[in-house]
Amino acid sequence: MSSLYCPTCDLIFDEPVAECPACQGPVELWVEGRAYVDPRAGSISKGVVLCLVLHSLQLLVPLFSEPVMLLFVGLTQALYVVPAIIVLAIQGKTKTLSGVLIFSGVTFLLNAAVLGIMCGSMMSSGY
Ligand SMILES: [Zn+2]
C-alpha cells in the first residue's frame, strides 16, 4: 500500500491522486518515516478560527439578557466548547482540536482576569 505526498503542502494522500488537491502541485511517492501533516487532522489555525466564531456568536447573548449574565460568560462558553472538543475528537481532527483547546484556554484566563477585576472593584466600592 503506497501513499502519495505533496512536498509543497507537506500533506500525505492514501488515495491515488494525479496532483495535490490543495495546491495542484506534483505529488511524489511517500517515503515511510518522513515528517508529514495528516490532512484529516485539520490545523491549529482552523481550531482558533472555530473558537473565535463560536465566541463571536456568544457576544449576541448579553444583548438579550441581564448584564449580570456577563458573570456567567465563562460557564456558557463551556456549553459549546465542550461539545466542539468532543466532535473534533471523534472526527480525529487532532490539530483543530489543539487549536480550540489553546484558544479556549486563553479566553478562560481572560474571563478569570475580568471576573477578578469586577469582583475587586465591587468589593472596594462597598458591596
Ligand atoms: Zn500541495
How do the strands and helices of this protein lay out in sequence?
Blueprint: E1 4-6, E2 11-13, E3 28-29, H1 44-58, H2 73-91, H3 94-124
Antiparallel strand pairs: 1-2, 1-3
Helix pairs in contact: 1-2, 1-3, 2-3
The chain binds zinc ion.
Describe this protein's structure.
- The protein is built from three helices and three strands; from the N terminus they run βββααα.
- By secondary structure, it is mainly alpha-helical.
- The chain has a three-stranded antiparallel β-sheet, with no helix packed on it.
- It starts with a strand and ends with a helix.
- The mean pLDDT is 82.
- The site of zinc ion has 8 residues, from loops.
In short, what is this structure?
This protein has 3 helices and 3 strands. With 127 residues, it is mainly alpha-helical.
Order of helices and strands: EEEHHH
Q: State the secondary-structure class.
A: mainly alpha
Average of pLDDT: 82
How much of the sequence is in beta strands? Answer: 5-15%
Q: Helix coverage percent of residues?
A: 40-55%
**How are strands sequenced across the largest beta sheet?**
2-1-3
How many discrete structural domains? Answer: 2
Q: Count the E strands.
A: 3
Q: Which parts are unreliable, with pLDDT below 50 for 5 consecutive residues or more?
A: none
Main pleated-sheet profile? 3 strands, antiparallel
- Described by the principal axes of the CA atoms, the overall outline is elongated
Distance between the termini: 69 Å
The Cα radius of gyration reads: 21 Å
Number of helices: 3
Named once each, the bound ligands are:
zinc ion
